[in-house]
Amino acid sequence: EQAAVVGVTADKKIAKVTLLDVHDEPGVAAKVFKDLARADVNVRLIIQAAATHDRNRITFVIDLDKAETVRMLGLTWLKRKIAGEVLIDMDVAKIAIVGSRIASTPGLGARMFDALAKHRINIDCISTSEMKVSCVIGGKQLDEAVRAIHEEFFGTSKRKTSGPA
Amino acid sequence: EQAAVVGVTADKKIAKVTLLDVHDEPGVAAKVFKDLARADVNVRLIIQAAATHDRNRITFVIDLDKAETVRMLGLTWLKRKIAGEVLIDMDVAKIAIVGSRIASTPGLGARMFDALAKHRINIDCISTSEMKVSCVIGGKQLDEAVRAIHEEFFGTSKRKTSGPA
Ligand SMILES: C[C@@H](O)[C@H](N)C(=O)O
Ligand SMILES: C[C@@H](O)[C@H](N)C(=O)O
């Protein structure tokens, strides 16, 4: 089966939450995501890269309307020293290329990153799966990013799909 | 459609590559992943959490047999000041729960993280998609992790699936 990018999805109704200075020891992620589940916060994406010196950071993407709930939870994480800092950014957007065998085809992600770079759009977070390469970028650059990626993969900047990425 | 975890996948034939001290400016990710595509390195997972100040880190997972190719590429990234440090860890494994509507069901990821925590298994990286929650852990703990997660979701520790996560 040939890999093919079949669409671009974009979503602005999200907030990005980053827990900084998290202890890199068993049980920390479990506490954070159990709290979120109990508060019925739908976590759309979890991104934790590798740690260094027993400290790590966890970024996750939530629905924009849950930002206040998570801000309150964040206060308890600070008090319980689960994280040194909790940042919530609401001026973000998620953009993704979707299709078959995306992750296992070297180069599709690179073309997406390159299209964003040519338009001076900084990539804040990256997350991939078999069917998708997702980037978190600044909210104000979403429209330009969708055009840039459509141009790269479909040769036109007209077509636009939206909806949850 | 009810969310359900239908399986656990595990994979040890991987290496984890982390670029530390990466400039957080447009174009950096494009350069790295264009180099990897040109060297025909299949990148199975890309994880970049949010940056702070103007530095970030990028973690990606490759097939174990490409570690030497990426080590050579890493030397060029250091020389070109794309990254301050390039770490390659071959004693890692990827474990994932798979099923429908996994990411959008609060609590499934938390149960996975909790099952690992109860067995004192540290979670090095986390990446999620609609159908999957993946964790990178230490290679030596993979068998224990598979048993722990099977027990949590299927109530038995007998069944074991393996293959690429
Ligand atoms: C940082 C966090 O993921 C920690 N390593 C844990 O296992 O919970
Ligand atoms: C770190 C890297 O992703 C950078 N922000 C870029 O846009 O390429």
How would you describe what is shown here?
The structure is a homodimer of 165-residue chains. Chain A has helices at 28-38, 67-79, 108-118, 142-154, and strands at 4-11, 14-23, 43-48, 55-63, 85-89, 92-100, 125-129, 132-138. Chain A is an alpha+beta fold and 165 residues long. In chain A, helix 3 (108-118) crosses helix 4 (142-154). The longest helix of chain A is centred in the middle third of the chain and has 13 residues, at 67-79. At the A-B interface, strand 2, helix 1, strand 3, strand 4 and helix 3 of A face strand 2, helix 1, strand 3, strand 4 and helix 3 of B. Strand 7 (125-129) of chain A pairs antiparallel with strand 3 of chain B, so a sheet runs across the interface. One threonine binds at residues 22, 24-29, 48, 56 of chain B.
Strand order of the largest sheet of chain A: 1-6-8-7
Please write the string of helix (H) and strand (E) elements of chain A.
Answer: EEHEEHEEHEEH
Bound molecules: threonine
Whole-number mean pLDDT of chain A: 93
Envelope shape of chain A? elongated
Characterize the quaternary organization of these chains: homodimer
DSSP helical segment count of chain A: 4
> Helix proportion of residues of chain A, in percent?
25-40%
What's the β-strand tally of chain A? 8
Largest interface: A-B, 57 and 57 residues
